[in-house]
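Give me structure tokens for this 486-residue protein.
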Amino acid sequence: MLAIRRNIISFLRAQMKSQIVIFCLLFSLTAALSDVTIPEGVSVSATRNVDIISQLVKVSTEYEIKNQGKTELNFFVHAIPEGEATRLAYIGAKENKKDAAILKISKTGVNGAPKGFAFYKIELNHLVGVGASVNLVVEYVVTKYLKPYPAEITQAENQFILYEGDALVSSAYPVEKETSHFKIGTGKLVSHTQTNGKHVGDKITYGPFTDQKPYSEKKISIHYENNSPFLVAVEVERWIEVSHWGNIAIEEKIEVVHKGAKLKGPFSRIDYQMDRRGPKQPSIKSWRTILPAAAKDIYYRDQIGNISTSIVNAKHDATDVELRPRFPLFGGWRTNYVLGYNVPSYEFIFSSGSDYALKIRLVDHLWDNSVIENLRVKIVLPETSRSIKVAQPYSVKRLPDEIHKTYLDTTGRPVIVLEKQNVVENHVQPITVYYEFDRIYLLREPLIAVAAFLILFIAVIIFVRLDFSISSDPAADTKSAHIKKD
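Here you go.
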């Protein structure tokens, strides 16, 4: 019996091992099939512009892609150094011509590529024939990449930043000619890698370099003055409440932190007022938020109460709100506030019969060169809304729907919950929420209110008509007796 059991156990173990091996082979085969192979005979020329004058690293690369191979070309692979890719917030591509459409981009792998790079496959709108070429522009934004150096400064000192990157364009293709321009602003340049580098005005230029092999690297560092605000919204909760009675209420709860060089030593209000550097101080006095042009009933408050130092400037296409906190923000300091407003629903809701579409921005422009670490958006639709779908221009995580109950609600209003991390200005784009709603339900709450008041009035009438006294009134009894005798 023991021998039989051992044989059975050995057989089962062998079966499990074979299944695991088959699964691993299938997984490896699937991964290999998803990777792309760089076609032979394709080369590029590139001009790269790297903007590092704010807290963001903004990279724009213009490619001339030449197809000298044997087959038509229908995609292009853009490479990003792994150190930047882990902090990538946004990437977009289009042809380098007027009114060009945004091209589809997906993350991929490249067969035979070395480690240290991330790859993004760009689908071309048309085939590039043998001997032909196409011009592309690829833009991407990286957050939390620039390092304050030194990490701590006093109130009177300026902020200096260290950038470490590459003088060469990361490329999976041979590069015939390339040049990189780094925009650093007009502040003091402490040091930079000088190999083939020229500093003129507010730019450092590396190149031109010719005949570079794929995946070539030339590491550089730039240490420069950068007093721009490193203001980061660590948490943003955006509440959008939709009403078909003509109004959409929007409220944002925002927690912000200055993530530049931390303040070392005490803070002096007198020295701060006497500081003549003005906007070049590494502190934040105020910031400008851009709201929709139709925004009204704007309020701005914190935990203490209303903050009256905001300035609203209504323009033709937008409403600018200058927000000034109760104290300036130095490195490491934080504050939180609530900003709310109303907009008319007819500008954002479109309908055809019982089909509705809400087209509204996922997030507003908080301030210039903003970074949002965690964004959560809750969209409250009218009660009885159904068949809800969300269309977004980029990847957004949709959490399970919630229910919100307020005055005169019975079943509650459906709440769509969306979440996204590492949000930048490029994400200030509208999303569309499709849903169905029967217009007859617009009368639901008014009828409930009318019925409630009617029941209340009837109850009051009945109440005043009833006699709740325990003993009878002698005078009333005598009067009624006289009436009977007569």
